[in-house]
Amino acid sequence: MGDPIGTGIVKSLSRPGANVTGIHAQATDISSKRLQVLTDIVPGIRTVAVLLNQEAPFTAVALPELKIAADARGLRLELCDAGTAEQLAPCLEDAVKAGATGLTILETPLLLGLRQQIVDLAAALRLFAIYTNREFVAAGGLTSYGPDRRQLYRRAADLVDKILQGHKPADIPVEQPTKFELVINLKTAKALGLDMPPMLVALADEVIE
Questions:
Q1: In the β-sheet with 47-52, what is the strand arrangement from edge to edge?
Q2: Which is nearest to 184 in space by CA: 167, 203, 171, 169?
Q3: Distance between CA 152 and CA 89 in Å, rounded?
Q4: What totals of helices (H) and strands (E) does the chain contain, helices first?
């Protein structure tokens, strides 16, 4: 999950202090790295739409970090609050009218479930988008940068094994991701009229053609 401390599930990552442990999937500087990738792809980008749910606990932690990262790169953010599927199109259309040419997302379970609609809207509005995980890119999104979820699942299995061996969850540190993946969809880049930087393509963990 995004913010186990802020949501009160654990006291700290090193000592959860409750009958629970797990994987903290959000690295502290990942917002900055996503914006870096986006500006590497589209150097002239100035305004980025941020698709989010203002009421999600994770948003309260992730949004300030994203704003700091945007300020450091001279980017303006247009917030698109979408708590329901019906709010997706109007909020993204408003962001484009306000000058947004890029898109990033503060993922929630709802938004992950709506990934195909989001990807289709980004294509229709010709937004250069960077997403949180490869599932969006597999659905036709431009690119993603985030934790390798396969590694997270393997690490979660190791935590289950420790608990089954008798370790108390409260004493097992909540882990953070150590492996990240960059996924690029060249077919989508071509549809957007975008020449993907060769160096970035070479660095990608997966390229969809």
A1: 76-81, 47-52, 102-105, 128-131, 143-147, 180-185, 206-208
A2: 203
A3: 32
A4: 9, 7
The contacts of residue 49 (CB under 8 Å, 6+ apart) are: 77, 78, 79, 80, 92, 95, 96, 100, 102, 103, 104, 127
CATH of domain 30-146+189-208: 3.40.50.2300
Return the number of other C-beta atoms located less than 10 Å from residue 9's C-beta.
Answer: 17
pLDDT per residue as tens digits for the range 47-79: 999 999 988 877 877 888 899 999 999 999 999
Do 67 and 11 meet the contact criterion of CB atoms below 8 Å apart? no
Tokens of 11: 């006291």
The partner residues of 80 in beta bridges, in order of sequence, read 51
Closest CA to 181 of 135, 126, 124: 135
Q: What is the DSSP letter of 134?
A: H
pTM assigned to the model: 0.86
β-pair type (143-147, 128-131):
parallel
Q: How far apart are CA 112 and CA 106, in angstroms?
A: 10
Task: Report the alpha-carbon distance of residue 209 to residue 137 in Å, rounded.
Answer: 11
| φ, ψ for residue 45, nearest 5 deg | -70, 140
Distance between CA atoms of residues 53 and 123, nearest Å: 21
